[in-house]
């Protein structure tokens, strides 16, 4: 039985259908990738609030409709980088990704938190596919902030790690949907 980090039982094709080289079935991260992910995250995490804002600015650029899901941006106003509520949510997302990076040796440690978080996001009106948009934006901010430091191998490691984060949140969301549907059909 493999651990989550081995990629067993998870959707490890990353986000948005991006496949890993070699058929995309994950496989464990190499020590070099673990080291590289931690090192590159340490650079981004120097300013989690600003990087969280970068992340959501990219997400909203890719899919402006997602703004509607945030009470802070549902009134049609131009969203500013200084918006405190967006900064706070961005920081929370960064914390959740940071939690996964801290647990790279045994990602099962963060599964309960991420599953619960996925279920909560069902209540917020988030669709499973939105987590793919977040994943693509995360890779984008890694690329723009890190330049050459994000080697192809480290990038591939990141796709794998976010693939696990996103898949786990989606699983929690699916459980919440199933639960809701069961409650609806009960006499
Ligand atoms: C486009 C995708 C997403 C949308 C539309 C979204 C939306 C929301 C909304 C509306 C809230 C509640 C209000 C707030 O605190 O701002 C929330 C809370 C939160 N979100 Fe997201 N979210 C998204 C993705 C994510 C991701 C990928 C993560 C983490 C990896 C995350 C982490 C959190 C956390 C930690 C909270 C606070 C939960 C609580 O304790 O109540 N969100 N999100």
TrEMBL record:
GO biological process assignments: oxygen transport; response to hypoxia
GO function terms (MF aspect): heme binding; metal ion binding; oxygen binding; oxygen carrier activity
UniProt superkingdom: Eukaryota
Keywords: Heme, Iron, Metal-binding, Oxygen transport, Transport
Region of interest called Disordered, as start-end residue ranges on this chain: 1-27
UniProt xrefs under InterPro entries: Globin, Globin-like_OT, Globin-like_sf, Globin/Proto, Mb-like_M
Keyword hit for Metal-binding: yes
Domain Globin, residue spans: 28-174
Family note: Belongs to the globin family.
Name used for this protein in its record: Neuroglobin-like
Species name: Branchiostoma floridae
Gene (name only): LOC118403510
